[in-house]
């Protein structure tokens, strides 16, 4: 057995302690700031292998490249992860909106070569920034239209469609040396609860799980996905007691055993309330590794050195007490190091191949726009309009930093256009008053989930039948006789595509 030194936060284990190094190796922490903090660089020298980047770490692509170069002065093969799904969930373009549409738009087009190309071009941009692991794609089948956290992050509601596009995305991303992390296993699509806030539960039988939720993960595994991210969801048909992230029947028996997956298993963010509010982060981390997880994602909220020390010490103490087998921790650490080594070689070897396609994101967004002509449609709009954006509470995964809507693009195409943001029961009346005599472009996002938003549209259309409706969420809103554009996502390129269609450019 290993001899342990003190593991209290502050003193820590010696850098040479194998178990302490393994404990650091399985952590994927975030940090604050736009340069590499001293504590991160120091811990990389003590065994830390991975870090995660979030929107707070990003100013420009050049700045991210400089940051990752700093990290590589401490560890050449450091695994740099990011949550860059594109579409609504973007970190590299958190302040402007994404240059690529999200999964739902790609699923609406249903061209796997296009999906592969989008993922390949995204991968090139990640590689240029020094990122090597993308916590994407979402392979969730959006079986519940009221899902508060997946929605447009899913390719769609059909398991076969989601499967073929998940595989294409994995292949495109990894063709340029970026490791894909397919999520959220065993499937977060049929939930009505956001696991950032509480523990969701999926009550379906195993036959449904295999036919629906698991199908895209099988496709991702067949495509060679280098990582899979677990979901903080309770699936009683698989394990009635513990959420998937902490469940040996889910991670080891099902994912490793039945599905034959041999790559890295990463947890979703451990500070999410589904784990932190039920088990606590330290306890949850130990249970996750014991269940079969190899890497612990933390840092979306808690992002200082203290959390890294707390989790390292919890893992070391669990090995010392016998709760966590030392061999299990060593196996997890080895898988992390193996993936770090693969990415270090793969990015360097991916310099040749298909040419860059810098416009492929906009091309995809244009193809994704679904247009239902309106009875009052008179062709392209040439005069300034009033853009009324009906804004719901933002999805936590998306965040509230990233701008959305078509206002900016219509101001560019139709100078003199004015905009306003509305919410609540009187949103429609307020928008009408603000518009004055101008034609209204009403922008909605997941209208089917917000009764007030539907009422606002009804109010607008009753008074102004020539109102143009732009749906930027899951396209569940039935056209009401007005010109209706569904973009299948709120990425910047989706806004450009919609504005072009309105202005006839």
Using brief descriptors, characterize the structure shown.
505 residues; alpha/beta; six-stranded parallel sheet; six-stranded mixed sheet; 18 helices; 14 strands; disordered N terminus
Any overview of this molecule?
- Helix 6 (159-174) links the parallel strand 4 (133-134) and strand 5.
- It is globular and about 75 Å long.
- Helix 1 (18-25) packs across helix 12, helix 1 (18-25) packs across helix 13 (326-349) and helix 14 (360-368) crosses helix 18.
- The chain is α/β, with parallel strands linked by helices.
- It contains 18 helices and 14 strands.
- It has helices spanning 18-25, 38-46, 61-74, 103-109, 112-128, 159-174, 206-213, 215-222, 248-258, 273-276, 281-291, 305-321, 326-349, 360-368, 407-413, 427-435, 451-463, 492-503; strands spanning 27-29, 50-53, 79-82, 133-134, 179-185, 227-230, 264-266, 296-298, 370-372, 386-390, 418-422, 440-444, 468-471, 484-486.
- The longest helix has 24 residues, at 326-349.
- The strands form three sheets. Strands 2-3-4-5-6-7 form a six-stranded parallel β-sheet. Strands 9-14-13-12-10-11 form a six-stranded mixed β-sheet, sandwiched between helices. The chain has a two-stranded parallel sheet with strand order 1-8.
- The N and C termini lie far apart (70 Å).
């Amino acid at each position: 057995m290993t001899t342990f030194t003190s593991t209290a936060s502050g003193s820590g284990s010696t850098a040479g302690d194998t178990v302490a190094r393994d404990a650091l190796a399985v952590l994927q922490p975030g940090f604050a700031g736009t340069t590499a903090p001293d504590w991160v660089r120091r811990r990389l020298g003590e065994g830390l292998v991975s870090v995660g980047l979030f929107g707070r770490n990003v100013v420009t692509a050049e700045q991210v490249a400089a940051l990752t170069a700093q990290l590589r002065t401490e560890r050449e093969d450091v695994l740099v992860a990011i949550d860059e799904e594109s579409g609504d969930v973007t970190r590299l373009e958190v302040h402007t909106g994404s240059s690529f549409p999200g999964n739902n738009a790609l699923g609406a087009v249903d061209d796997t070569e296009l999906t592969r190309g989008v993922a390949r071009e995204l991968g090139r941009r990640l590689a240029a920034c020094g990122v090597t692991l993308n916590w994407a794609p979402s392979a969730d089948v959006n079986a519940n239209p009221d899902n508060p956290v997946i929605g447009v992050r899913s390719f769609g509601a059909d398991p076969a469609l989601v499967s073929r596009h998940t595989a294409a995305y994995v292949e495109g991303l990894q063709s340029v040396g970026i490791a894909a992390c397919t999520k959220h296993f065993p499937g977060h699509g049929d939930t009505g609860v956001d696991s950032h806030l509480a523990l969701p539960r999926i009550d379906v039988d195993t036959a449904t799980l295999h036919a629906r939720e698991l199908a895209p993960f099988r496709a991702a595994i067949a495509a060679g996905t280098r990582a899979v991210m677990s979901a903080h969801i309770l699936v009683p048909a698989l394990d009635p007691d513990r959420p998937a992230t902490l469940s040996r029947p889910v991670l080891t028996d099902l994912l490793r055993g039945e599905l034959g997956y041999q790559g890295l298993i990463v947890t979703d963010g451990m500070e999410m309330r589904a784990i932190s509010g039920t088990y606590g982060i330290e306890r949850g981390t130990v249970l996750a590794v014991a269940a079969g997880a190899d890497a612990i994602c933390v840092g979306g909220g808690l992002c200082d050195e203290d959390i890294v020390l707390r989790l390292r010490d919890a893992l070391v103490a669990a090995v010392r007490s016998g709760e966590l087998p030392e061999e299990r921790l060593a196996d997890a650490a080895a898988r992390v190091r193996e993936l770090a080594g693969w990415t270090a070689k793969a990015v360097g070897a991916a310099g040749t191949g298909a040419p860059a396609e810098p416009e492929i994101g906009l091309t995809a967004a244009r193809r994704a726009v679904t247009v239902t002509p309106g009875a009052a449609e008179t062709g392209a709009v040439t005069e300034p309009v009033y853009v009324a954006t009906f804004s719901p509470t933002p999805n936590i995964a998306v965040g509230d930093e990233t701008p959305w809507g078509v206002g900016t693009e219509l101001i560019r195409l139709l100078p003199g256009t004015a905009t306003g943001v509305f919410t609540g029961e009187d949103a429609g009346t307020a928008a009408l008053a603000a518009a004055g005599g101008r034609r209204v472009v009403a922008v909605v996002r997941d209208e089917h989930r917000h009764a007030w938003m539907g009422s606002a549209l009804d109010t607008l259309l009753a008074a102004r039948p020539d109102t143009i409706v732009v749906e930027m969420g899951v396209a569940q809103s039935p056209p009401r006789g007005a010109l209706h554009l569904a973009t299948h996502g709120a990425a910047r390129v989706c806004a450009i595509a919609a504005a072009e269609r309105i202005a006839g450019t």
